[in-house]
Amino acid sequence: MARLHLFDLDGTLLYGSSAPLEISRQIGLEAETLALDHAISTGRIGPPEYATQVYALWAQLTDGHVAAAFEQAPWLSGIEDVWAEIRDDGDYCAVVSLSPSFFVERLTRWGAHAAYGSRYPALPFAEPVDLAGILSAAAKVQIADRLCEEFGVRSADCVAYGDSLSDKDLFEAVPRSVAINADRHLAGIATHSYMGRSLRDAYELVRRAL
Question: Global pTM?
């Protein structure tokens, strides 16, 4: 039976950072976005408020800024190798993140079968952000269910990888999970825990258990 591996992005595949933070660093707005990241991670604001405020910060953002942010981001090591192994085993891997889809979807080039993020207008922004396209923690579970149906995988054969409050619902919905450099919100929920900068080492915890 095939398995589906579901990866968060911010703080998980990205070590100690987020896609919005890396994007904002390219246009000199790192401090402002760091404050927003802290606000959402502590539950003081939700995804709609975050999206509205970061959209306003990114008025001058271009595709070139996003490409540079992706290339320079602090990725965990071994992402492409792990996903290649998952594919070779006949399993599936997907990224589901609250971050902008124009950043998240670049990960399909590294071997993810699917990559989902919050929908923002095309760059450079000429239209307002539609909050209906902004993902939430609950949306991660809904997308996981759709992917299971698409790939013919049972929810009992899913593995989630995450680090924070936005991953809590998904961790509670699947039988196996890996907390990667995680905060207190996943304490006692994950079946495995990893601290470090290697996705290979995190993945090995699950592979050995299976």
Answer: 0.96
